[in-house]
Amino acid sequence: MASSRALATLLTAALSLAAATAWADPTPQQRDLARNLMQKGRDARAAHDNKLALESFEAADDIMRVPTTGFEVARSLADLGRLVDAHEMLLRVMQIPERPDDSQGFRDARGYAKVLDDDLVQRIPRLRITVDGAPMDKVTSITVDGVALPAAAVLVPYKVDPGHHVIVARTDGAEGRAEIDEVERDTKAVVVHVVETPVGATPASAPAAPDAPPAAPDTTTEPRGLGTATWIGLGVAAAGLVAGSVTGALSIADKGSLASQCNGTRCPPSANGTLRNANAFATVSDVSFIVAGVGAGLGLAGFLWLRPSAAPATSASVRAWIGPGSAGVSGTF
To answer: Number of structural domains, the chain?
Structure first.
């Protein structure tokens, strides 16, 4: 009996010490910071920034741990749709021991907490989870939104926040999954279908794929048509035609100018430059048309006889060049 009384006395002292520690008065600077945080939270709530309001009230509650700060945290959680967390916070507020020197604000906060919690208890949705296809003694785990629950969770409704939820049940050989949307004040039954799979068998949810036929050898080649040689020939022909036409026109223009300056084959010294240009352009034009003919022949040969190889074709580029008295085609193949 004496030992029991001593143990009771020791427990009472420990609880008193814990309560005194929990209610240790913050410093004046901490109190001022908490007041500013509370005002910040109220301003954020007025601006409909519920996330910032929650952060501000939580910071103030970390300092003070009093009914007023706790109630504001719970109210902000409810505003964000986190009804389950709000309910737990309100329970904490209502369990804070009363002290003789409690302010009227603390007493009011406890009363508000009771009113809000009575409303939340009715608003919180619930799930009635049933596992189908496997006996409960074979169920190794149940999770709701990634939170692990004991298998016995199926015996009572499970509180959740409004919104979308994913329920997964597992056994040693299979897994079942269900998804459901919940709204406030609603209780829904959700069935998770689990199919047991014998050892060594393929799960029913993932049927075995038929044996794939052996892979055929890769015979991919470029389709028959305009191969590299053909494109090069056509490019050369086009460049030659353009160069020949332009230089031919320039030569004709210069010769027309000479007709008014020369008497037959005799021309004044002032016309020598025009004469040289006319002859040069005529030469370039003749060469260009010859190049165009060669290109056309190459293109025709490529189209008729040459087949593209199985290897990827290399890129080709062609450009024509013209200089005084000369012309040609260059490129990469």
So the answer is: 3
HSE value, Cβ hemisphere, 13 Å, CA-based, for 136: 8
pLDDT (tens digit per residue) in 261-288:
676 666 777 666 766 776 776 777 777 6
Question: Per the domain annotation, does 205 fall within a domain?
Answer: no
Q: How far apart are CA 213 and CA 195, in angstroms?
A: 31
Q: Do 150 and 111 fall within a single domain?
A: no
Last residue of a domain, one of 193, 217, 243: 193
Tens digits of per-residue pLDDT, 171-226?
A: 988 999 999 999 999 999 999 999 765 555 544 444 444 455 555 555 554 444 55
Residue 166's DSSP bridge partners are: 179
Query: What letter does residue 27 receive in the DSSP assignment?
Result: P
Q: Are residues 256 and 325 in the same domain?
A: yes
Query: Domain range holding 182?
Result: 126-193
pLDDT digits (tens, 9 = 90+) for 131-151: 998 888 888 889 999 999 988
- Nearest C-alpha neighbor of 275 from the set 293, 259, 291, 288: 259
DSSP 277-319: HHHHHHHHHHHHHHHHHHHHHHHHHHHHT----SSPPPP-EEE
Let me know whether 66 and 142 are in one domain: no
